[in-house]
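Inputs:
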Amino acid sequence: MHTTTRPHFICNDCIFSLACSEDENSPIRKSTSLVKQYRVLKPREVLYLPKNKFQYLYVVQKGAIKTYQTEADGHELIRGFYFAGEILGYEAISAGFYPFSAVSLCETLICEIPYSSLLKFLQNKILLQENILHSISQQLNIGVYLASSTADQRLAAFLIDLSTRLHLLNTEAEFILPMTRQDIGNYLRLTAETISRIFSRFQKRKLIKINHKKIKFLQFTSLQKIAEGL
Amino acid sequence: MHTTTRPHFICNDCIFSLACSEDENSPIRKSTSLVKQYRVLKPREVLYLPKNKFQYLYVVQKGAIKTYQTEADGHELIRGFYFAGEILGYEAISAGFYPFSAVSLCETLICEIPYSSLLKFLQNKILLQENILHSISQQLNIGVYLASSTADQRLAAFLIDLSTRLHLLNTEAEFILPMTRQDIGNYLRLTAETISRIFSRFQKRKLIKINHKKIKFLQFTSLQKIAEGL
DNA sequence: CGCTGGATTGAGGCCGATCAACTTCAGTGG
DNA sequence: CCACTGAAGTTGATCGGCCTCAATCCAGCG
């Protein structure tokens, strides 16, 4: 499970860097670092399942992860997508177990943060305390656009949200949708067909260019207006 | 704004009790207690508005509060309801200001927790740290049932959720809906008419007894089945 | 090469929104 | 006390957006 090389591009902004030595070879790191283990996940590899004992928070270093729960009718309800630099697992703190499943969408690299060690480490680290509260607070505001009334609004808002979270160089850059139409639909509470239809409609209106998983914004501001319901 | 009497029924379970002396008359309390101020809100009194500077977390001692944001089209989108013992304001930690409005639904009593004092107080209080993380984590799992597909499912799940959060003595007890049909609709992403119709339908099926704001469960388990989509 | 899962496109149906009329209730002032 | 008022709630008729079901297309891959 260990990787020999350690990625750095995310670490600079990571709230746990205060507890995680930057120097891979430092002897100090081995004893004090919060992050003892990295994991590489192949596409569609399970990170955790519902009712699994909560032990770790995870930081996505590279790749993408979806969390979801399976409804009584077998329908898959997506709770969230997590990309490079984002943290998952907070929902499990209160219950003591993960309330749903987490699966990688593509090859993904993650750091494991043992929660019990983190709690011990937290004492006296007022800055880290603040940063963690800040970070969880952010997650309370995720996906507000799920409440948007029309399907066009929700999908436009989703695309804009994605584009910011995938660290694009600019808003006109082409990027890859790591998830399927079905995943998007399960997240936005729409069907895959509806997602497909709206993509086609957006393309006809020259708002985006889309070809399977490759997507590119042509009129970012128009999309924003749609997202806002104007 | 101060009240002379101090309520106790909530305090025993309050995560901030560690930082909040139980004894109203103790001289210690005045200097060390986190909670310096209580506030009584009349019905429909504003607690905070969007963009207001974030200074306090609030604990509801008695009554009910709704948080909401107003969409571009003027539609009021309800983010959450908060009842006795529940905490609101966490969403503001990351932004530094409250991202939406909070208004009381009926006469309501709240405690103000100054966030900056709380942060200072947190140091070395590992139990309090844990409790707060636990408490925010819970809020990440609120309102999952908003994703339920049908209107009947969402409303049934909402009623069940309400009944647990209002501290009813038993599941057959009659209780008061503190919010309007419109509020419920704005929370569940349905119209007030739809809420009214479903209430009528549930009543015809003898699942509930409802008369304006007074409601009573007649077949709790049937409601649970509806909520689960069975 | 054919297989398989994902994506696209079309036809038809249903659930919840919209619009509108009416009732009930709480609050106010004569 | 009752009349008046406006907000909240109920109920009905109609409409439209999204779902369902189905056929076809396409890319990736053994």
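Residues 150-151, 190-191, 193-194, 197, 212 of chain A lie near DNA strand D (CB under 10 Å from a C1'). Flag for discussion at group meeting.
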